[in-house]
Amino acid sequence: MQTASTNICERLCNKSIHDISWLLNIPRSTVSGIITKWKQLGTTATQPPSGRPRHMTERGQGMLKHTVRRSHQLSAESIAKDLQTSCGLQISTTTVCRELHGMGLYG
């Protein structure tokens, strides 16, 4: 597949969106979207993801679930301390509660 800059160059050479689509064998909507993005942003690069990255990884979530299933009577504070000593994962008690609620575990 050709790069977005090729599409822009073709457009600048006064070719129609239909012609560019046919020449590069890609959908017209793709060509149109790239040209629109170029006009609005001056680049065709994608934007970085919005929001803050998650603190716990999937591995950390698995370890949290394993810890809770092993001994389900522990408090969130003791779970956070246990994760810190066993895996070096430093999370707060609020994060522990939030993650457990996200997994469907309450109480």
Report a brief summary of the structure.
The protein is mainly alpha-helical and 107 residues long. The chain has helices spanning 4-12, 17-24, 28-41, 58-70, 76-87, 93-102.
Write a concise keyword list for the protein shown above:
single chain, 107 residues, mainly alpha, 2 domains, 6 helices, Transposase Tc1-like domain-containing protein, WH-like_DNA-bd_sf, Homeodomain-like_sf
Helices and strands, in order, run as HHHHHH
| Rg from Cα | 25 Å
Number of helical runs?
6
What structural class is derived from the secondary structure elements? Answer: mainly alpha
In terms of per-residue confidence, which ranges show pLDDT below 50 for 5 or more consecutive residues?
none
In total, the number of strands is 0
Provide the residue-averaged pLDDT: 82
Strand content: under 5%
Distance between the termini: 53 Å
State the major sheet: none
State the share of residues found in helices, binned by percent: 55-70%
What's the domain count?
Answer: 2
Overall 3D geometry? Answer: rod-shaped
Protein name: Transposase Tc1-like domain-containing protein
InterPro entries: Homeodomain-like_sf, WH-like_DNA-bd_sf
